[in-house]
Every structure is written in C-alpha cells, then in structure tokens.
C-alpha cells in the first residue's frame, strides 16, 4: 500500500509495529526478521506437534507471508488495485 506524504514531507501513517501502512524502509530489518521467523516456523511444522500448536503455527506462517507480500508490494510501489490483481493471479 502506498502511504501518502504529509504536507511536511514525512509519512502521514503512524509508525506502529502492528500498523501495516508504514513504509518498509522505516524498519529495514523487518523483512529479514519475518523471513527468518517464517523459516523457523516451517521447520517446527515439519515436526510432530499437537493439533492446536500446529494450527497456531500455520496461522502465524500465513500472517508472516502476507506481511512479506505487503512489504514487497510497497517496495515496488504497487497500488492497492494492482495488489488485488497480484493476489488473484495466484
């Protein structure tokens, strides 16, 4: 998602860790941390887990994957309309 600039030149979106509107450049370590976490969760999923833990990890993997997608879309400057097309193409 593209974040509009405020009149002062800065981003008008709040810089909150759970607010996905901030620009990925605000935290350059975030994509790497997400990928590392996703890899660790997938490794854990390969093991023998209780069903509730498996479900929790699968949901966390899906959320991390969506967040990585949002970061990539923002880095490429894709509009929300284009991201809908991208998501539907899969």
Strand-helix topology:
Elements: H1 30-45, H2 51-75, H3 80-89
Helix pairs in contact: 1-2
Describe this structure in words.
The structure is a single chain. This protein has helices at about 30-45, 50-75, 80-90. Helices cover about 55% and strands about 0% of the residues. It is flat, with a radius of gyration of 16 Å. It has a domain at about 30-90. The protein contains 3 helices and no strands. It is mainly alpha-helical. Helix 1 packs antiparallel against helix 2.
Describe the structure concisely for a colleague.
By secondary structure, this protein is mainly α.
Distinctive features:
57% helix, disordered N terminus, flat, mainly alpha, 90 residues
Query: Which class do the helix and strand fractions yield?
Result: mainly alpha
Backbone CA Rg: 16 Å
- Quote the distance from N terminus to C terminus: 19 Å
Biggest pleated-sheet summary: none
Q: Count every helix, treating DSSP H or I runs of 4 or more residues as helices.
A: 3
Helical residue percent? 55-70%
Strand content: under 5%
Q: What is the H/E string?
A: HHH
Please provide the count of β strands.
Answer: 0
Characterize the overall form: flat
- Quick check: average pLDDT? 78
Low-confidence stretches: 1-19
């Amino acid at each position: 998602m593209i974040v509009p600039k405020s009149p002062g030149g800065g981003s008008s979106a709040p810089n909150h860790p759970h607010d996905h509107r901030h620009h990925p450049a605000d935290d350059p370590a975030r994509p790497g941390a997400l990928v590392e976490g996703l890899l660790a969760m997938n490794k854990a999923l390969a093991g023998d887990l209780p069903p509730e833990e498996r479900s929790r990890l699968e949901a966390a993997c899906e959320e991390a994957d969506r967040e990585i997608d949002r970061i990539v879309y923002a880095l490429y400057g894709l509009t929300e309309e284009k991201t809908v097309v991208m998501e539907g193409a899969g």
